[in-house]
Structure formats: C-alpha cells, structure tokens
Design goal:
Layout (H helix, E strand, L loop, with lengths): L4 H10 E4 L7 E2 L6 E2 L14 E4 L10 H11 L22 H29 L3 H5 L2 H29 L6 H38 L4 H35 L4 H30 L7 H11 L1 H10 L1 H9 L1 H22 L11 H24 L18 H5 L4 H11 L1 H14 L9 H31 L4 H30 L10
Antiparallel strand pairs: 1-4, 2-3
Helix pairs in contact: 3-8, 3-13, 3-15, 3-16, 5-6, 5-7, 5-8, 5-12, 5-13, 5-18, 6-7, 6-10, 6-11, 6-12, 7-8, 7-9, 8-13, 10-11, 12-18, 13-15, 13-17, 13-18, 16-17, 17-18
C-alpha cells in the first residue's frame, strides 16, 4: 500500500498502525464488493500496515465510522439488527432581512399584546383583597413572572436548537426530547416557585419586621401551584409551536421565544391572581388547605427528577442549570424593588401598566436574538468547538449591528420593530383606558427613548454573552436567556422609572403622570 506524504502525516496524527489480522472476507465500503485477504499482502506475501483512523464525532453527533459503515451494512443486514440511523440535520436556513422580519412580526405582536393584557390584568387585580391584605404578593409578581419567563424561553430556545440541528426528526427522538424537557421544567418551576415565594416573604418582612406564618404558607402554596400549572400549559404550547413551525418551513427561533415570553406573563399572572385569591378565601375557615396544596406539588418533585435524569439531553441541565435561574431571580428582584418603590409614590402611579410591556418587549426581542446566535453556533459543533466563528471578547457595536453577518442582520430587524411595536401597544393601552397616564408627545418621546436604549443594550450584551459562554463550553440555550431577560427587566424598569421622574421634574402636567 502506497501513501502520499500528506496522507502519511494524517495517518500518524489521527490513527494507529496495526498489523493485518487474517479474516475470511471484508466488505469494502467504497466499492461495495468483497476484498480477499490476499489483497492486503505485499508483493512478497508480507503483511502491510493498515491505518485505523481514530473515530471522531462530527457536529451532527454521528461518528465518521457510522457513516462509512452504513453502505456496508446494507449488504449484510443480519450482522446488525438494531441499527438506527439519524437523519441528516437540516441545513441552516437562508434568511433575508425581509424573511426574518416577516417571521418575527406576527409572534412579536402576539406576545406584545400578551404583555399588554398582563399589564391590564395587574391593573385590575391590584384592588383584590389578597393584594390589599397580603401585600407580599406584589413583591412576588415580578420575581415569579421573570423566572417563569426565563424557564419557558429557555425551553423554547433549547427545543428550537434541537429541531434546527435534526434532533427531533424521528418520533423516538421527538418523544424523548418532549418527556425529558417537560419533566425538567416541572422540576425547575417547582423549585423556582418556592425560591420566589421565600424571596417575597423575606423582602416583605425586612421593612416592617412583621412575620405572618399563614401569609407565608399562602405565598408558598400560590407560587408553587402557579409555577407548576403554568409550566405544564406553556410547555405543551411551546412543543406544538416548534413542531408546527418546522412542518411549515418557519425557523422556530423566530417564533417560539416571543410566544413563550408573551403568553408566559399573561398566563402566569392570571393563574397567580386566581390561585392566591382562592387560597386566601380558605385561609380562615380551612387552614389546612394551603399546607396541603404546597405539600402536594413538593411531593411530585422526585418523580420529575427521575424522568429528567433518564434523558441525557436534560440530565446536564438538571445538575448545572440552576445558577443562571437563581442569579436571574436576584436581578429580577432588584427590578421588582424599583417598581415597588416607584409605584408606591402617587406621583408615578401610571407606571405600573407600562412596566410589563416595556420589559416584555425587550425580553422577547433579545431572546429571539440569543436563540438565533445559539443555533448558528450549534451548527458548527458542540459548545467550545468552532471558535473561529466567535468574535472577539468585546465586539464593537458596529460589528453587532452593521456587519454583513446574518446575526447582525437579525439584530437590525429586531431593533427596527421596537418603535412601531410600542406605538401600537401604547395606543392599545390608551384606547382601553388603562393606567393613569395620557399619551402626550413628550411622554411618547421619553418612553420610546427608554425602549430603544433598553433593546440596544440587550442586543449588544447578547452578542457578547452568547459567544463568551460558547467559548467556555456552556450551552447558551440554557445559560444566556435567564440572564438576558432578567437584565431586560432591570434595565427596562430602571429606564422607565427614570423617564417618569424626569417627566415629573420638568412638569409635564398634560400627561397626568401622577393621576
């Protein structure tokens, strides 16, 4: 056997040199015919060196030897009766700015109207007895909404990436992905709901120094039940959206995360209000109801842990996916404190109805961008591979927004959606007589400035954070979105509060900011 110099170098680098072992026959994958043992002998009957290449896994998760043996197995199927071939993953979609905008537009407005509805619901339920007498529920709202949004958008991003790289193409793979991820988000939702209730109890206890055990159990039961039911409903919706998107030829990254964010806020807030109100009514007559509800959902936790551990795709997230969720909770809680301090001032009462909108829109857009960048990187391999596709540690704003890269193109499209989207949402709030603020020109200018600045900052951070995590072997689908959406809540709430303060200071009485 003769080899060229460059081939010899490759063999020495990637393979091991082994002697020939006599065999009866061997199937040649290249020619599809039998090769006799004599073909491996040299001119004088001596054995020649056979180079055995090291098996490597490519970006699709299929070993090279599997691809080589596929043709050979067709002629000898009896040797391997349990051979399951993975279908070829879908190639990256060729998207223009117009196609990106067209696909994002409908779910963006759908999710935006969901955040508008969430703001209107919050404006109504704040007058219910449970919100009046158990004031810690107000502290629970932003933390629980933010955490639930993080979980659902992370699920949507994870499933979108799996669909785009061909891990949900067969019924068996699809079922494994669904069961593992549904069990995983039930674990995360139950634990996160409990942590959010503890945070609400602590933040409510510190200022007044008064602790009510019945109110604490009410918060825990309401939070855990809300998180569990909302995760179940939203998880099923996300799976249906992603499967339907793939069948229709639509990139799930453009559709799933905005719907998860918008519906997550509305469904979670509605469930929290209804469940807490119902449990509050049972507080005096049936004191055992609240502990019983809390214990029931906690008792289900080992079942979901067992199911999630059996799936390799979710086992790693089950162990390592808690840090971003817990840190995101802390970041969202800071935004909740800003909201609590601002809305409690009668001069800024109108801010409440706009907060879910500006935070929801910013979170929706940055989640789309983070999911798209993550999918783009997954096309080149596993986290940490293909580092040539990652930009420098701190990309310039020009490379993020004005380069010819597909992710830069999508960032420009998403940024262009901010102003028309918020104008529609503001008009909807005004027409429904929500909040306590009249839409004047100066108010709209300040509001739009805050919204644009929020999304601009978030898209730039997303470009840096996703590549930074990828280079450190962290899956951005599991780690980036919780941080980004929590930062969106903090930045959006802070900028909106600053805008209301400036409007009040310059005396924009026409906008009725303090009505």
């Amino acid at each position: 056997m003769s080899s060229k110099p460059e081939q010899k170098e490759t063999h020495q680098a990637n393979g091991a040199v082994l002697p020939v072992v006599p065999v009866d026959c061997h199937t040649s994958p290249d020619r599809g015919q039998l090769v006799e043992p004599s073909d491996f002998l040299g001119p004088h009957g001596n054995g020649v060196e056979v180079v055995v290449l090291e098996s490597r896994a490519n970006a699709k998760g299929v070993r090279e030897e599997d691809a080589l043996l596929e043709n050979g197995s067709q002629s000898n199927e009896s040797d391997d009766t349990n051979t399951e071939r993975h279908p070829e993953p879908a190639s990256p979609l060729k998207e223009t700015s117009f196609s990106i905008g067209l696909q994002v537009l409908f779910p963006f407005f759908l999710a935006g109207f969901g955040t508008v509805a969430a703001g209107m619901v919050l404006d109504i339920v704040q007058h219910w007895d449970v919100f009046k007498y158990v004031t810690e529920v107000f502290i629970l709202v932003p933390a629980l909404l933010g955490l639930k949004g993080n979980l659902e958008m992370t699920l949507a991003s994870r499933l979108s990436t799996a669909a785009n790289i061909g891990q949900m193409d067969t019924p068996k793979e699809l079922w494994k992905m669904i069961t593992g991820n549904m069990a995983l988000i039930q674990v995360q939702a139950t634990v996160v709901g409990f942590l959010a209730s503890i945070a609400a109890v602590v933040f409510g206890w510190i200022p007044d120094g008064h602790f009510n055990i019945s109110h604490a159990v009410l918060l825990c039961a309401s939070s855990v039940a809300t998180a569990f039911i909302a995760s179940l409903v939203l998880g099923m919706i996300m799976i249906g959206v992603i499967i339907g998107s793939r069948k229709m030829g639509i990139n799930p990254d453009n559709v799933a995360t905005p719907i998860a964010a918008g519906l997550g806020d509305l469904i979670t807030l509605a469930l929290l209000s209804g469940i807490s109100c119902g449990l509050y009514k049972e507080l005096e007559s049936k004191v055992y109801v609240n502990p019983l509800v809390f214990s029931f959902f906690i008792a289900l936790l080992p079942i979901w842990v067992f199911i999630a551990k059996k799936n390799p795709a979710t086992r790693e997230v089950l162990y390592s996916g808690w840090e971003p969720v817990v840190i995101a909770m802390a970041i969202s809680s800071v935004g909740g404190l800003i909201l609590d301090r601002t809305v409690s001032d009668p001069n800024f009462a109108g801010m409440a109805v706009f907060t879910p909108v500006i935070n929801g829109v910013g979170g929706n857009l940055v989640a789309v961008q983070a999911s798209r960048i993550s999918t783009y990187l997954h096309m080149s391999g596993m986290p940490g591979e293909g580092l040539e596709t990652a930009p420098r540690k701190c990309p310039s704003p020009c490379s993020t927004f004005f380069s010819s890269d597909v992710n830069s193109r999508s960032a420009r499209v998403l940024l262009l959606l901010v102003v028309p989207g918020h104008l529609v949402f503001l008009y909807t709030i005004s027409s429904m007589q929500g909040g306590h603020t009249t839409l004047t020109l100066i108010f709209i200018v300040f509001y739009m400035t805050a919204a644009l600045l929020q999304v601009l900052i978030l898209l730039y951070i997303a470009d840096w954070m996703v590549h930074w995590m990828w280079g450190r072997h962290l899956d951005p689908d599991n780690f980036s979105i919780p941080y980004l959406t929590a930062l969106g809540d903090l930045i959006g709430t802070g900028l909106l509060a600053l805008s209301f303060h400036i409007l009040w200071l310059i005396g924009d009485r026409d906008s009725d900011v303090g009505d």
